[in-house]
Design goal:
With 445 residues, the protein is an alpha+beta fold. The protein is built from 12 helices and 21 strands. The protein has 2 domains: 14-32 and 103-201, PDZ domain (Pdz3 Domain, Roll); 203-436, 2-enoyl-CoA Hydratase, Chain A, domain 1 (Alpha-Beta Complex), CATH 3.90.226. The strands form 4 sheets. It has a 7-stranded mixed beta sheet, with helices on both faces. Strands 1, 2, 14, 15, 18 and 19 form a 6-stranded mixed beta sheet that branches.
Length: 445
């Protein structure tokens, strides 16, 4: 296995571009589960009597009369911030307002494409930190690396900005050049990199075969997000892997923030009996509660290992939770994020949208994961040495686990055995692995 560029180019470990969409404890992979967007019209009356509109008008009057620059105020922007403040006042980090520009970016992301440098970023006190770089992206060509902290885009300092604000200075438009000032681990001075922005396609699914030292051939499918066509990409990738006679499958959901609920249900339907409960929602109105069941059972049973981490959220947790509840897979990695809410988009008259939490979901066995997450069957995290040596301990453990599961077929025995080996430091397959990339035939690489 070539690990030289592991944290940048591994076929799965691409964090979803959706990391910028919603504030999530300093980074953005909180995503929504929805299938449609609605446009709001009419008058809303419920609860208005409980809102002190007099206080609002009183404050606005003070600003109009006394704020020195009020005559030069951008009233449209002020209105948008009023709406943003009202939504944020709910205290739900997954219910958010998008202004028209943010709405455009949001839907571009859902379509799997955008204009920018092709890097995923998270919050850093000094700016934004690059978490992953997409294969073949302008960022990769411009020598941007995972772990870099971007502190300035052209002449604009990024410290103190939200990730969303910072990204507006980094992306757009294709063909233009952005000069990024970077702090890089191991470097004593600020680096400056010139990156030419481009149109970037975002592959949601990547697949390959992996040959293990004992001759087994296993399949690997990594999903960056649950986008509109991810279920179709997954189906085609898995069908191709089966045609190559793989004897087991690794599903990599690390850094996957979630996405469309229907995509998760369709992917789960490949492995579960028809009409079997996969996830159920709880709404404010009990009559709107929904039970999502398996639609088909398209593929033969294969041993499955699912990789997750603390950034696996929402639809990723629906998939891993259902497979764990039904003991159809062994979950490897670290405890997932713990997002059990369902959001829907509502269009607004200014061209913006508000994304609203409309329900919460439960696993088939009725587990709630909010703030708790899915606890893996085999817990394994990276060590400081792993980062230094570019060693994917989690993936190697998944390979070890899947190989043992293929041999024994006994889930509990394998879990106990691998846990013991981890405790004794015996999972050391890395140097002997040979990987053969096949591609899914449906990704944009």
């Amino acid at each position: 296995m070539n690990l030289r560029l592991f944290f940048i180019l591994t076929p799965f470990v691409t964090v979803s571009f959706f990391t910028w969409l919603v504030l999530w404890e300093g980074w953005y992979p909180s995503f929504f589960i929805a299938s449609n967007s609605w446009t709001v019209s009419g008058t809303i009356s419920q609860g208005v009597d409980n809102i002190d509109m007099g206080l609002f008008h009183e404050t606005l009057s003070v600003l109009q009369e006394h704020y020195i620059d009020y005559p030069d105020t951008d009233y449209k922007k002020l209105s948008q911030w009023m709406v943003r403040g009202m939504v944020e006042g709910l205290g739900d980090k997954h219910t958010v307002y998008f202004d028209p520009k943010e709405t455009q970016s949001f839907h571009e992301s859902l379509d799997g494409e955008f204009e920018g440098i092709g890097a995923y970023v998270g919050k850093n006190d000094l700016g934004v930190e690059v978490t992953k770089v997409m294969e073949g992206s302008p960022a990769l060509q411009g020598d941007i690396r995972a772990g870099d902290v971007i502190i300035k885009a052209d002449d604009t300092e990024l410290s103190g900005m939200t990730v969303q604000e910072a990204i507006e200075y980094i992306r757009w438009p294709a063909g233009s050049i952005v000069h990024l000032s970077i702090l890089r681990p191991g470097e004593n001075s600020i680096l400056t990199k010139a990156v030419t922005r481009a149109h970037v396609d975002i592959p949601s699914t990547v697949s390959k075969t992996i040959d293990l030292p004992d001759g087994k051939k296993i399949g690997y499918i990594g999903m960056a997000v649950f986008a509109k066509n991810t279920d179709i990409e997954f189906f085609e990738a898995y069908k191709k892997l089966l045609s190559e006679n793989v004897s087991g499958l690794i599903i990599d959901l690390r850094y996957n923030p979630g996405g469309f609920l229907e995509a998760a249900v369709n992917i789960l339907s490949n492995f579960t009996e028809k009409n079997k409960l996969l996830v159920r929602t709880q709404s404010r109105d009990p009559s709107e509660n929904i039970r999502y069941v398996s639609k088909w059972n398209a593929f033969p049973d294969l041993p499955i290992v699912v990789l997750v981490d603390e950034n696996s959220a929402s639809a990723s947790e629906i998939v891993s939770g259902a497979l764990q509840d039904y003991e159809l897979a062994i979950i490897v990695g670290t405890t997932t994020y713990g997002k059990w809410s369902v959001q829907k988009e509502f269009g607004l008259s200014d061209g913006g949208e508000v994304k609203v939490t409309i329900a919460k979901w439960l696993t088939p066995n009725g587990h709630t994961i909010d703030g708790i997450g899915i606890k893996p069957d085999i817990e394994v995290d990276f060590t400081p040495e792993d980062y230094k040596n570019m060693y994917d301990r989690q993936l190697e453990t998944a390979k070890e686990t899947l190989g043992a599961l293929i041999d024994s077929g006994t889930r509990d025995v394998v879990i106990t055995s691998v846990r013991q080996k981890l405790a004794q430091g015996e999972v050391t397959w890395s140097g002997a692995i040979v990987e053969n990339s096949t591609g899914s035939g449906t990704t944009n690489e």
